[in-house]
Amino acid sequence: MSAPTPRAATPTPVLSPEVADALAAGRPVVALESTLLAHGLPRPDNRAAADQVEDAVRAGGAVPATIAVLDGVPHVGLTAAEVDRVCADTELAKLGVRDLPIAAALGVSGATTVSSTALLAAAAGIGVFATGGLGGVHRQSQDTFDESADLVALARTSIVVVCAGVKSILDVPATLERMETLSVTVVGYRTLRFPGFYVADSGHALDWQVEDPAAAARVFAARRALAPGAVVVANPLPESEQLDRDLHDRVIAGALAAADAAGARGKDVTPFVLGHLHDASEGATLAVNVQLVLRNAELAGRIAAELAQLS
Ligand code: PSU
Ligand code: MN
Hints:
Elements: E1 14-15, H1 17-24, E2 29-32, H2 35-40, H3 45-60, E3 63-70, E4 73-76, H4 80-88, E5 93-95, H5 100-106, E6 110-112, H6 114-124, E7 128-130, H7 141-144, H8 149-156, E8 160-163, H9 172-181, E9 185-189, E10 193-196, E11 199-205, E12 209-210, H10 213-226, E13 231-234, H11 245-262, H12 269-280, H13 284-310
Parallel strand pairs: 1-4, 2-3, 2-7, 5-6, 7-8, 8-13, 9-12, 9-13
Antiparallel strand pairs: 3-4, 3-6, 10-11
Bound molecules: pseudouridine-5'-monophosphate and manganese (II) ion.
Manganese (II) ion (MN) is lined by residues 146, 148, 266, 269.
């Protein structure tokens, strides 16, 4: 008779067979987060979006590795049934880096944010990650101190993050200042304007741009050789695909006021505001949100393919 084995406090991440094979062979892999599926996009549309995002990574030339924590165990690359679960489970936690040890020790299931996805991806040896928009400094942060853990995680984690900037519900210039302080490398993809998530241009300038996926991969190789930390590749939607400007300004003001009135706090703020936007715009923000994630996934696939050539 032996005593029951206690759950390991730091379970080894489970790699899907396809992701494990690709990493072992040095083939390109792109990490994808699950918070945008579980808490950023409404059910049931999130399920189709999950497949489309993975397909977009493949179209770019890489293997997708969607990351989530299931029963305390980090999974890097999900089966279709696991994606079903992430997209359908209304009880799924939202897990940042600080929540990962709790999930591991208590057997919690949850979706991973930019911060925790980046950490788990880098630990698995994945160099490129695609998402929609980064978390950042919230408006009124001088009162609330609400700044996403994404920023500190990006300062510490060696990974390329392809995004469409930060959500326009945030304080964009303050977020850019914080990324400078934290020495996060930021380049525009074929632009010197920082993208505005739903819109092509946030109104803020960037210092640097890259013209192709190969240049982005070289920037990351240089960063990785120099010091830990992320390279943010800011990839704007083309203006022809962006959200109508007037609608954008109107629904964002309404969503922020609604979050305030509802007393949304902490990690509930971002999902609350995104849900309100999707409703108030009658799905217009949702369609644009999915479209920009798809574009980022495809570009991330191409950057990962270039990175595999360098390594
Ligand atoms: N971008 C999106 N949709 C999202 C998020 C980002 O297009 O749902 C999520 C990401 O997972 C990001 C998180 O890491 O919001 C930031 O949450 P917070 O502001 O609570 O740190
Ligand atoms: Mn926050």
